[in-house]
Please model this.
Amino acid sequence: MESKKHVLIIGSGPNALKANELKTAFDAIVVINNAWRVREDWTHLIYPYDFPKERWPQEIKLSQSVVTEKEFVPIQNQYGGFIYAGATMAFTAGYWALGALRPSHISFIGCDMHYPKTGKTHFYGKGTPDPLRDDISLMSLKAKSNRFLYISQKHNCLVGNLSDGPSELTFPRINPRNSWPKNPDLKANLIAEALKREKELSYFDVTGRYWQNLDKYERKEINKLDDVWEKIL
Model:
């Protein structure tokens, strides 16, 4: 496993373009889907199996690599799988970076999963609000964000959100010009309860394609689990 101290993850939100203003020297820049267009110096492009080929970059430098489900599914499975982690690329990129790059810091930008009713929804204009789709793993973005925050803390990684606008991410807001805030205090008793419930439910699909076996999972049980994760912060 390679080790990259400070990782930047860029999504497709309208504020993703602000990533060009960042002067921080990142050890790795992970871009999600179309976000490879934001900065030319990206190091890793991550996208799902259904990302259209016509949207792929025409040229990939030797310093750059592509991350597909072949790479990110096994790593996300190490952290509990897609139902518990949240099956949208912002969280998937976070878990992949955590496992593959072993960073001490992860900064997110353009990953707010907030979609205004008017104006741009994505840096390139209008797009599909994937995290808002009807999906058993995305019923509470707050719960999934809190869970990632805990998992990151457990692996000695600080996580922050560079956005200054509305966001579904619960990570501390960070400013590249200031020092990082300390890890927020999380409720250990509720974390233990959530992890215990995850183990009891055993909602897991090694392929990552849980939607092909939805009869195995109960929405009400996931809702109960999400309620606990929501309260850890």
